[in-house]
């Protein structure tokens, strides 16, 4: 009963039923903790995990993973490291069942910016030969390297995945393109984008094109960025795309192209004032008359 309630997200009744039990067993504790974690109630999940420890109950692998994930959502690095110590003492990661726990730890440390600790967990999986054909930890650590500003390390493991015969997912390509964008690696991103299509047979999504747009804009390839926007059916992302180009035109001082991008942004949403404000600032910075933008409203 408790498991059924938790699986359906009825956590209030699950907790009430748990509290009525004369003496909860390890299964009931594990069930409720995982239920809280999967529903996004991270503080409740972590609180129950700590109470379970005080009650002398033995957590299962999935319970450890849920507790670490709760710490990840809360960015509670200190508590996560304490739980990691318990996991190490239990010898869980040295077993096949510890894959989920290790991946939760990689996410925790990656989200908290501790890539040294995330890599240590990943390398332990390699050492214990647990990864095999499972690409989830690979995708996770590559994504965290990319988001934390380590493009070289992300690229190293990205290529290692191919050597291991693991498939690169569309989400992984987004992480890699984003990493190139923030690292200013335009040519690498171009090759990745083409490789995604030609070598991996994946169709780019709007998210992939938006990464390329951001990369072109950041690197001053404003003509290429504009051509990309005009060639695509961006639908709900059209306003964001034109605003990206307006911001890039402001950064690179391209007033004529910026004016045209503002007009397109306002055509996409005439209630949005931000592109107009950016153009006015561009006029002022370049000392050009027309900074009030009245000509756009005619």
TrEMBL record:
<keyword id="KW-0677">Repeat</keyword>
<dbReference type="Pfam" id="PF01535">
    <property type="entry name" value="PPR"/>
</dbReference>
<dbReference type="GO" id="GO:0003723">
    <property type="term" value="F:RNA binding"/>
</dbReference>
<dbReference type="GO" id="GO:0009451">
    <property type="term" value="P:RNA modification"/>
</dbReference>
<dbReference type="GO" id="GO:0048731">
    <property type="term" value="P:system development"/>
</dbReference>
<dbReference type="InterPro" id="IPR046960">
    <property type="entry name" value="PPR_At4g14850-like_plant"/>
</dbReference>
<feature type="repeat" description="PPR">
    <location>
        <begin position="25"/>
        <end position="59"/>
    </location>
</feature>
<dbReference type="InterPro" id="IPR002885">
    <property type="entry name" value="PPR_rpt"/>
</dbReference>
<feature type="repeat" description="PPR">
    <location>
        <begin position="134"/>
        <end position="168"/>
    </location>
</feature>
<dbReference type="InterPro" id="IPR011990">
    <property type="entry name" value="TPR-like_helical_dom_sf"/>
</dbReference>
<protein>
    <recommendedName>
        <fullName>Pentacotripeptide-repeat region of PRORP domain-containing protein</fullName>
    </recommendedName>
</protein>
<dbReference type="Pfam" id="PF13041">
    <property type="entry name" value="PPR_2"/>
</dbReference>
């Amino acid at each position: 009963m408790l498991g059924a309630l938790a699986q359906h997200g009825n956590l209030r009744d699950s907790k009430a039923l748990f509290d009525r039990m004369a003496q909860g067993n390890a299964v009931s504790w594990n069930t409720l903790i995982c239920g809280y974690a999967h529903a996004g109630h991270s503080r409740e999940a972590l609180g129950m995990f700590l109470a379970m420890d005080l009650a002398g109950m033995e957590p299962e692998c999935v319970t450890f993973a849920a507790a670490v994930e709760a710490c990840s959502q809360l960015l509670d690095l200190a508590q996560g490291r304490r739980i990691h110590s318990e996991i190490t003492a239990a010898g869980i990661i040295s077993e096949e069942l510890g894959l989920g726990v290790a991946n939760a730890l990689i996410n925790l440390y990656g989200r908290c910016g501790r890539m040294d600790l995330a890599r240590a967990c990943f390398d332990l999986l390699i050492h214990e030969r647990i990864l095999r054909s499972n690409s989830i930890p690979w995708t996770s650590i590559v994504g965290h390297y990319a988001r934390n500003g380590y493009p070289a390390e992300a690229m190293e493991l990205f290529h290692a995945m191919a050597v291991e015969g693991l498939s690169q997912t569309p989400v992984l390509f987004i992480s890699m393109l984003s990493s190139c964008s923030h690292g200013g690696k335009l040519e690498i991103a171009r090759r990745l984008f083409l490789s995604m299509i030609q070598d991996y047979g994946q169709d780019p999504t709007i998210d992939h094109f938006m990464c390329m747009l951001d990369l072109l804009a950041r690197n001053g390839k404003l003509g290429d960025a504009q051509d990309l926007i005009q060639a695509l059916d961006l639908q709900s992302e059209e306003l964001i795309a034109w605003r990206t180009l307006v911001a890039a035109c402001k950064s690179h001082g391209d007033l004529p192209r910026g004016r045209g991008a503002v007009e397109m942004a306002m055509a996409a949403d005439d209630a949005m004032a931000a592109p107009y404000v950016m153009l006015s600032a561009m006029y002022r910075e370049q000392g050009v008359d027309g900074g009030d933008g009245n000509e756009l409203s005619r």
